[in-house]
């Protein structure tokens, strides 16, 4: 399914083009189970941290069983970012090869 639009038709038309979610990946993402599972996991982790259930490790005398060292989170974020960029590059290479750019 393709969506043809004129890029020179003005700002109002551009806004309508951006709102045409039916021609994007958004509807498929919103119905996928994985999206909602990760979204709920994110909200639960965020809420747990903000309410104090997860706290930063401040020393060896930390008393909570679910203390979280944010250095570990930084490493995980860096690795995730690397693989996401690598995957996006591969997708773009396939797209360019398919469309002959």
Can you tell me about this structure?
The chain has 101 residues and is an all-alpha fold. It contains four helices and no strands.
What is this entry, summarized?
By secondary structure, the protein is an all-alpha fold.
Q: Pairing-aware structural class of the strands and helices?
A: mainly alpha
Average pLDDT, rounded to a whole number, is: 78
The geometry reads as elongated
Q: SSE order in H/E notation?
A: HHHH
The unreliable regions are none
Could you estimate the helical fraction of the residues in percent?
55-70%
Strand content: under 5%
Specify Rg, calculated over alpha carbons. 21 Å
Count, helices:
4
The beta-strand count equals 0
Distance between the termini: 21 Å
The biggest beta sheet reads: none
